[in-house]
Write a structure and sequence with these properties.
alpha/beta; 4-stranded mixed beta sheet; 10 helices; binds oxa(dethia)-CoA
């Protein structure tokens, strides 16, 4: 016995930063961003806090699932950037929605949602839980160097939540990590401790985009292939792929490598950019609410990110009876 997805819900900030507006802030243009990434706009937290967004996503998912906060046995939040270092963002969500269950955060950067699913799976297998809430959210706009055109055009804020219940709809899941603090890293900022001996660095995202790109295309293809094989299925059995929304070129190249028709890949990177761990569940929620996921559909999800981490899984969609 593992889990089934009972409901999904998203939350994104109101403010939309278009490529045109970004072009007035840094030396870039809509043509470059669109052709290199597929991104047209992203949502940025101006008025909202990460707590408001995570709580909104949680409430939307609970409502969609028909589950009350009192029924939750566990809350996992995947984030790199909770409101505070401690308490965990999951504990803050627990308080705000009125739940009483254990709660903790996981940090696997953009792969965080799939890592959280794998952790939740363990709780279901051990029969410790009947309902689990996973909220995946980052507000990367806080730690982007808005003068670095190579990175600031790529990311946005927002994310989503899922509610899991008992079931047999997780068909296969696979996580990987290759320790690498060179190609993608966000350091802590300054520190006033007289004992702090690390070099002073700005707390902004540093990335070697080309290296992440190559890693990503390979990770998406091998990750999805692996879970399909583990489930005893073939590429033809996959009805929908929900990929990490980092770059449309990564998605297109992965579709080609996998031999899965590109039309089966759900994409919303044009509207949100890369929302880190929020990316896969945000796409899952939009596909769900657009009525694109049918009862019994086989869905592949895959993400990659700092670590370097990857997560891939194959689920059967329960849908509504
Ligand atoms: O969740 C994981 C997060 N990370 C990723 O997913 C990143 C994966 N990597 C990528 O998506 C791509 O590597 C990027 C979109 C980051 C970059 O695309 P690229 O095709 O690899 O471009 P590049 O870095 O090779 O840069 C090509 C040119 C350079 O100019 P020169 O040296 O050829 O004259 C850059 O300076 O484009 C220039 N450039 C830009 N020009 C206009 C870089 N950023 C910009 C920009 N606007 N925003």
């Amino acid at each position: 016995m593992s889990f089934t997805v009972l409901g999904t819900g998203k939350a994104v900030p109101k403010y939309v930063l278009t490529n045109e507006e970004l072009s007035t802030m840094v030396e870039t243009n809509d043509e470059w961003i669109t052709t290199r990434t597929g991104i047209k706009e992203r949502h940025i937290c101006k008025d909202e806090t990460i707590t408001e967004l995570t709580v909104q996503a949680a409430k939307n998912a609970l409502e969609n699932a028909g589950v009350t906060p009192e029924q939750l046995d566990l809350i996992i939040c995947s984030t790199m950037l909770g409101e505070d270092i401690t308490p965990s963002q999951a504990c803050v969500i627990q308080k705000e929605i009125g739940a009483t269950c254990p709660a903790f955060d996981v940090n696997a950067a953009c792969s965080g949602f799939i890592y959280a699913l794998d952790v939740a799976d363990g709780y279901f297998v051990r029969k410790k839980v009947k309902h689990v809430l996973i909220v995946s959210m980052d507000n990367l706009s806080n730690i982007i160097d808005w003068q670095d055109r190579a990175t600031c055009v790529l990311f946005g804020d927002g994310g989503a939540a899922v509610v899991l219940g008992e079931g047999d709809d997780l068909l296969a899941i696979n996580l990987t990590a290759v320790g690498n603090d060179r190609v993608l890293r966000i350091p802590h900022g300054t520190n006033s401790s007289p004992f702090y001996r690390h070099p002073e660095e700005k707390a902004v995202l540093h990335m070697a985009g080309n290296e992440v790109y190559k890693f990503a295309v390979n990770a998406m293809s091998t990750g999805i292939k692996k879970v399909i094989a583990e489930a005893g299925l073939t590429e033809d059995d996959v009805d929908c792929v929900i990929p990490h929304q980092a770059n449309i070129r990564i998605i297109n190249a992965s579709a080609k490598n996998l031999g899965i028709p590109r039309e089966k890949f759900f994409c919303n990177v044009n509207h949100y950019g890369n929302t880190s761990s929020g990316s896969v569940p945000l796409a899952l929620d939009e596909a769900n609410r657009a009525g694109l996921l049918k009862k019994g559909d086989i869905i592949a999800m895959c993400a990659f990110g700092a670590g370097l981490t990857t997560g891939s899984c194959l689920i059967r969609w329960k849908g509504k009876d």
